Amino acid sequence: MSISRFQPNNGRLSHALVHNGIVYVTGQVPVDRTQDVRGQTAQVLARIDELLAEAGSDKAHILFAQVWLKHAVKDFAEMNAAWDAWVPKDALPARATVEANLAAENILVEIAVQAAVRS
């Protein structure tokens, strides 16, 4: 069984990897952390698009998404506005969203996904 790794980061992790036809994208956070949660979510989703494409998949093949919000009650609707504009309506993945104390104070959202490789 082979494992393909994409965009290793400082010897700590790969931003994506493929194993047995599944793409695993590690938790992605926004680069521009001055934006509100909707803007941060849009950034993260664009990054996920890039990683999935590099690994041979796309958002229509996402099986499961994990979303972490710094302020779930306050930011859930705005995060969902960005998500709803991005996710294909005919390919809705399973998803879990929870509140979490994220790695930096100005990170409002982090998202990880697992997706099938395009056949």
Automatic annotation (TrEMBL):
One Pfam family matching this protein: Ribonuc_L-PSP
SUPFAM superfamilies (alphabetical): YjgF-like (SSF55298)
Gene3D superfamilies: RutC-like
Alphabetized InterPro entries for the sequence: RutC-like_sf, YjgF/YER057c/UK114, YoaB-like
Origin: domain of life: Bacteria
PANTHER family xrefs: PTHR47328, RUTC FAMILY PROTEIN YOAB (PTHR47328:SF1)
Name the record gives this protein: Enamine deaminase RidA, house cleaning of reactive enamine intermediates, YjgF/YER057c/UK114 family
Native source species: Pseudomonas panipatensis
